[in-house]
Design brief:
Layout: E1 3-7, H1 25-28, E2 31-35, H2 39-50, E3 54-59, H3 67-70, E4 74-75, H4 88-97, E5 103-105, H5 110-121, H6 126-140, H7 143-151, E6 160-169, H8 172-177, H9 179-187, E7 192-196, H10 197-203, E8 218-228, H11 231-244, E9 248-251, E10 254-260, E11 263-269, E12 272-275, E13 278-281, H12 288-293, E14 300-311, E15 321-323, E16 328-333, E17 336-345, H13 354-367, E18 375-386, E19 392-395, E20 402-406, H14 412-427
Parallel strand pairs: 2-3, 2-13, 3-9, 5-17, 6-15, 13-20
Antiparallel strand pairs: 1-9, 4-8, 6-8, 7-8, 10-11, 11-12, 14-17, 14-18, 15-16, 16-17, 19-20
Helix pairs in contact: 2-11, 2-14, 7-14
The protein binds flavin-adenine dinucleotide.
């Protein structure tokens, strides 16, 4: 039996700071069930409720306990280039042999993943990279403002921190070697400031003694971005706001989207069917099974990532610092510094591997020799990775009332609010944007 965990009075006077056209009787009579309460599902539920729908948000856990809990917290508008860039096939073998590289394989999980990995690697061409970059740019540009729009006036606002997003390179040669990605950023209008030597030490004192890792560090700062000081609490606060606005939060595991005559009529959860007119599937990496049942073989797999949190540190970075050779970020979070990132392929099963966590700690100790902490915590998370690195956002043809919002890979925290707004506009029939690049139907015939 599904359990209502947060149920407040159904207030018809909806909070409407974004100036949305709050729907009348017609929308209020439509019941939408959003399955999955990570940043994507919660954002979708908030916008649907603001538009006037009657909304239930369903999760097998409390909101914000999946991948949205442990990420690096960066609102990463510069995150426009996919992992599958043209140089990856040449770099990957060497990376796997290097114990200091951020790429790991959990060999036991690899055989089952091989078909997915093969399809994924086929996207390492210039043409695919350019196409994917355009789709990701449209989803992530200006995302700090998108977070302000969803969080303003809610408890979640307290977690929003305006900040630079700083990429740290070991030396000038490493900056030059990243020209493909930096040139793409320039083309898309991103501007940055480079610093080194005394100027860099003054800007970010933590990098002053990083000599054991970075011979002559250079920082590339994207200004005017931001981060979330506690991503799990941020999602929970947005869910609290949703409940305060009359939304319903239920704790139960969805096992089936029930349809009749080509349209959604309910969601089976905890053994019973809850009636609805519209279902939104936003279960992150766990979306594949329910998507298949809806007729779409979505190639979504886990790209495992890790965090190491250092609590009670004697100092903290001023900004999120992406250590580019190691592909992880140090983010100053509430009460701790979170070091999050890395990439491990190897499936959903099995617990954390030691090597990635050991790499995080080794690099932190080497790069910041004066950093001390009282205790540490560790976490393994599952980025929902689609073979073409573009999330599935939109309706499912042939199944009226079925919508998807999953597959956000490395940029789900950044783009969750925009995804939610787009889905709400699609469901309300209020968009004339061409969102074909994200259509789930590109996988309908696989
Ligand atoms: C180490 C790491 C660092 C990252 N850093 C960043 C970053 O700095 N910036 C950024 O933008 N992104 C980052 N990401 C990516 C980002 O965290 C994800 O893209 C995002 O959290 C995905 O959100 P989601 O809502 O799709 O999924 P999730 O947060 O995983 O939510 C899915 C929810 O669905 C629920 N669920 C699953 N199955 C069912 C079911 N059958 N019934 C009911 N509920 C179900 C789960 O319990 C879960 O709560 C990072 C990821 C990792 C791993």
């Amino acid at each position: 039996m599904p359990k209502a965990v947060l149920r407040l009075s159904h207030n018809l006077h909806l909070w409407n700071p974004a100036g949305y056209n709050v729907g009348g009787e017609e929308l209020m009579s439509k019941h939408v069930i959003v399955i999955g309460a990570g940043i994507v599902g919660v954002s979708t539920a908030v916008y649907l409720r603001r538009a006037g729908f009657n909304v239930t948000l369903l999760d097998k856990q409390e909101p914000g306990e999946g991948t949205s809990y442990g990420n690096a917290g960066v609102i990463a508008s510069p995150g426009i280039t996919p992992v599958t860039h043209p140089r990856l096939p040449l770099q990957a073998p060497g990376m796997l042999l290097n114990k200091d590289s951020p790429l790991f394989l959990r060999w036991r999980g690899v055989p089952r993943m091989l078909p997915w990995l093969t399809r994924y690697m086929k996207h390492c061409t210039q043409a695919h990279t350019l196409r994917i970059t355009q789709a990701l740019y449209d989803l992530v540009n200006d995302s700090y403002r998108e977070h302000e729009a969803i969080a303003r006036g809610t408890l979640a606002e307290r977690h929003l921190c305006p900040s630079d997003y700083v990429f740290v390179y070991p030396n000038r040669a490493a900056v030059a070697a990243d020209a493909f990605s930096l040139d793409l950023h320039r083309e898309y209008g991103f501007r940055w400031r480079e610093r080194e030597g005394a100027e860099l030490s003054e800007y970010e004192p933590m990098l002053a003694d990083s000599g054991q890792t970075f011979s002559s560090p250079v920082s590339v700062s994207f200004e005017g971005h931001g981060y979330i000081s506690d991503p799990g609490e941020y999602v929970k606060d947005l869910a609290r706001h949703f409940a305060e606005q009359g939304g319903e939060v239920m704790r139960a595991e969805a096992s089936e989207v029930v349809s009749e005559g080509g349209r959604v009529v309910g969601v089976r959860a905890g053994g019973e069917v809850m009636k609805c007119d519209v279902a939104v599937l936003s279960c992150g990496v766990w979306s594949g099974g329910l998507a298949r049942a809806a007729g779409v073989k979505a190639p979504v797999e886990t790209e495992r990532g890790y965090h190491l949190e250092l609590w009670g540190t004697n100092t903290a970075p001023r900004f999120p610092l992406m250590l580019t050779p190691y592909k992880f970020v140090l983010t100053p979070m509430r009460g701790r510094v979170r070091c999050a990132g890395l990439v491990e392929f190897g499936g959903l099963g099995g617990g954390p591997s030691r090597a990635p966590l050991a790499l995080l700690e080794r690099v932190v100790r080497r790069t910041f020799p004066d950093l001390r902490w009282e205790r540490k915590t560790e976490w393994l998370g599952h980025r929902p990775a689609v073979t073409d690195s573009i999330p599935l956002i939109g309706g499912v043809s042939g199944l009226e009332g079925m919508y998807f919002g999953f597959g956000h890979h490395h940029i789900g925290l950044t783009s969750g609010p925009r995804t939610g707004r787009w889905l709400s506009e699609m469901i309300g029939g209020r968009t004339n944007m061409d969102l074909g690049a994200y259509s789930p139907m590109r996988f309908a015939k696989n």
